[in-house]
Amino acid sequence: MDMTTENLANDITRVILSGKMDLAGAQKIDLKFSAVSGNAKRLIVDLEQVSFLASMGIRTLVIGSKAVQSKGGKMVFLKPNADVAQVLTAAGIDSIIPIFQDLAAASEFLAS
Questions:
Q1: How far is it, in rounded angstroms, from Cα 41 to Cα 48?
Q2: What is the C-alpha to C-alpha distance for residues 96 and 107, in angstroms, rounded to an integer?
Q3: Looking at residue 49, what is its pLDDT?
Q4: CATH homologous superfamily, domain 2-102
Q5: How far is CA 50 from its chain centroid?
Q6: Which helix (H) or strand (E) holds 55?
């Protein structure tokens, strides 16, 4: 699991994840993701390059979302593939963290 970040307009942080977010993958990015989500008020988590999402990966993402929300911020997911989107939907995560297929729409949602 690899993680990169970039700053976008309107004080939005984009986290780009790639690889398998299984136990090992989640452990690899957990500390770094916690640091980013602890400092961001508007966070886009780009899941386009995530090929697998397990429960430990979901845990990492939900804890990050709670950190963002604790500061009155918002977090969204961007472009998960069909398998990852199905895991998020089956777990009910999409009801607390919105999923977008378009960067502009995700940015607009966060900026509002």
A1: 22
A2: 17
A3: 98
A4: STAS domain (3.30.750.24)
A5: 11
A6: helix 55-70
CB of 75 within 8 A of CB of 15?
Answer: no
* Token pair listed for 106: 């995700």
What residue spans define the domains of the chain?
A: 2-102
Helix, strand counts (H, E) of the chain: 4, 5
Residues in CB range of 112: below 8 A, 6 or more apart: none
Contact 11, 71 (CB under 8 A): no
Q: What is the pLDDT of residues 14-54, one digit of tens each?
A: 999 999 999 999 999 999 999 999 999 999 999 999 999 99
Sheet with 2-8, strands from edge to edge, namely 2-8, 12-21, 42-53, 74-78, 99-100
pLDDT in tens, 64-100: 999 999 999 999 999 999 999 999 999 999 999 999 9
Cβ atoms 97, 76 nearer than 8 A: yes
